[in-house]
């Protein structure tokens, strides 16, 4: 507890516990604390928190809340257990779903549900079921409706059950989202809860809001009644299919979360590009852009101001990057700042998903960007004078380094000679569907091959021949 500075901000409270914001080093964290004691309710909450701690210690996924650790607080009269978790200032999903003034188009809803399905699929793969999946237990990580971004994380695993724990008659969940077999069911109770959340996202209404008592909801659900889907927009018919499948009375008839994820992807592909439901006007310039043209913006939209490396790595893989580890040079500590990502990627825009020999679009894949910035002699955002200082201090005659050019979309090679320095601009072009790097009289499909040419044949820069003898590799933090 000595390393934590608890702030006055309280984000949740109950009769026997609270959630507060705290500082842990440079991280904003949430402290979830429950007191132990003889009171039955208090003791139940204490056991629930201990169970949550046990579950979270097994989990690591971009759509599962991150636990940094746990501790006992001896500063209070009664023993208190605290879980230290990542803090998500945007709050829980219920604040978004039930806000009538906030427009959520179909693409945003699909992105939201994809991140829930991804987290739940991982949870089930770890032989854990949530048992209390609902909007209050889902935190919003990134939200940008203009770019159709809604990324969330699952939290509150107090009722979650591990595969080695027997079913319990005390497991209730939250009645609105509870499957008819909640007390005796298996993993499919979570699919039922997912269906109710998706119904609420499509209708922007609270399920069973006309029922006054929990017993009334339980009775209707057991008898096969479900919320009305007839008023859901026809363009969401694919989502209605998922809803109806996932809240089937027989758990065996429900989709698994792997199947849910695939069905959501089909719905996403089936939306017309210029659909009014997509939130883009028919004549919007953005609606005419190819999907791969906004990769850099989508990645940025899923980042926090400072994103943990593990989460950033998962984001890159979601966008088809096969070599995410090469981007680790962007890390400061174990985090990647959005500012640094934006600065670096600005030189390579637009990003594209893939390239074939028939490609007509000039742009880089994430893999090609990784190949450039991970070169050991690439020094990033250095000015000409800073490059000279590096070569003066750490290089010799014939040493060279690569850096960003002052002109967007170009790179610069700076080389040292005994009495002079020179800068050679590296541009790129498209030949036969392939990116080709061009510098002086030489061209190549990779920077490394281009440098091999320079080392074999001394190029002329401004009418003077320069020798490229050895790379000046990164030795200082960029």
Explain what the structure shows.
The protein is of the alpha+beta class. Strand 2 and strand 3 (27-35) form a beta hairpin. Strands 16-15-14-13-12-19 form a six-stranded mixed β-sheet. The chain has a five-stranded antiparallel β-sheet with strand order 1-2-3-5-4. The chain has helices at residues 40-56, 94-97, 106-125, 188-203, 214-222, 237-246, 257-270, 295-301, 309-318, 338-345, 366-373, 384-394, 447-456, and strands at residues 4-14, 17-24, 27-35, 67-73, 80-86, 128-129, 138-144, 149-154, 161-162, 306-308, 335-337, 399-404, 411-416, 421-431, 434-439, 442-444, 460-461, 464-465, 470-471. It folds into four domains: 4-86, Phosphorylase Kinase, domain 1; 94-278, Orthogonal Bundle (Transferase(Phosphotransferase), domain 1); 290-351, no CATH class; 384-471, SHC Adaptor Protein (2-Layer Sandwich). The model is unreliable at 162-171, 273-293 and 356-360 (pLDDT under 50).
